[in-house]
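We read letters as residues; the fold follows as tokens. Both lines appear below.
***
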Amino acid sequence: MNASFQQSGQQGQPVPKLPGTGDSADLGDKPDRRAFLALGGSAVVGPWTFGSADPAENAAPDGGATPPFPRSRPPRRSRKPDKTVAVVTTTYYYLSHAYHIVGRFLHGYLRADGYHFPSFGVASVYVEQVGKNDLSRELAQEHGFRLSASIEDALTLGTGKLAVDGVLLIGEHGDYPYNAKGQKLYPRYEYFRQIVAVFEKSGRSVPVFCDKHLSYDRRRAAEMVATAQQMGFPLMAGSSLPVTWRRPELELPVGTRMQEALVASRGELEIYGIHALEALQCMVERRVRPQGKAGARQGVRAVTCLQGDAVWQAGDDGRWSWELLEHALSRSLSRNAGDIRANCRRFPRPATWGQFVPGPIAFLIEYVDGLQAAVLQLDGHVADETFAVRLGEPSRIASCLFYLPPPPGAAFLEALTRHIERFLETGRPPYPVQRTLLTGGILDYALESRIRNSQRLLTPDLEDIRYDPPADSGFIREDYTVPIC
């Protein structure tokens, strides 16, 4: 869809055609930053592009009635957004996290109450790894945002001081190495430090959203949280699983007594491990009652990672519950036929995985208040995330599926985007960032336990993590399909 007009930011010159904007289905191209920077430093595209050359495709103003074909021919923004964000990302290609999250800010999305555009628009995008499959250049042409060659430029828009109202830090996907623990070394911490440097230089700050865990390194993650607290800017992080659909819509009241809990999951160990831990924590955090300013103690005393037949033996020994697993699997939409032990043993390495750790895998988590929890990664038997918990007084088991609508829409990231919007608007995270500080720390210890021959590791830096659970879990309740009646 062509824009009705395009300008450069300061000079008012027509935007030159960017190299390599043709379609490409190859997601394996190595980054080619030279082509991206061929325009010289920063490509200034904008300030804003609204509307369409075809009036029929722009029939609905922002906040107005839903156009006749929103699922196939959605409207364009009809007015300038109230505020702007800078996007700082590792890479931007079809179906990447940047594609899904930033795409909702660019294209809007359909909700039950009509077609919606966020009040924040995209002012600039910094992409570290730009390959032949990059979409940021084409989208800059279409939507009129600034392409920046540095994080500082993305936040200052070339003015030398902070010039945006929020930052989206999306360090997911791209060509990065793995360390000995199997952690992909995404530069989220390094990006964060550069963002903070702009805040310090400008003498002011804005809300920052960090996609998934804060850092693969728990010490760096703790530093990020401490820095945000010291400087007084809002910080939000985490997975989409806590806010995606649940089947059934299980909302455990705050203060619910719990005896043990389990998540059945799948996927590349670290990359999906954080999702499983976030799914677990958003449920078990509700066992504690709010403690006000001090926050409720959510901490973890020890973590153990088991692999292979040791996982099944631990279940037989009562270190995790086969009964809870059965309840969790009763919610799965992907459960394989046959014996779970054989299915996991026969699971072949997927071609797309950068790091393959033969399963099954178990994270055994000991909370300071005595709660025992397990995350089981069961590739070959399931390909979704389910949860089960044994509640106390009266004793019963509750369970649910974390429902993830599939790509290309990947609407679970749309559910997350809704919360990002409110966070940017209000400066208040929908849930405390300490949740992700805890889950990222558990994951770091679990991966360390695995390479230490499944040693039980004490977690002194996680023991006193405190935060109150949100009054409402924030998972999305309405149906994504919104049928036409």
Q: What stands out?
A: Confidence is low (pLDDT under 50) at residues 1-31, 34-41, 45-61. The chain has two domains: 33-241, 243-405+430-458. The domain at 243-405+430-458 is CATH 3.30.360 (Dihydrodipicolinate Reductase; domain 2).
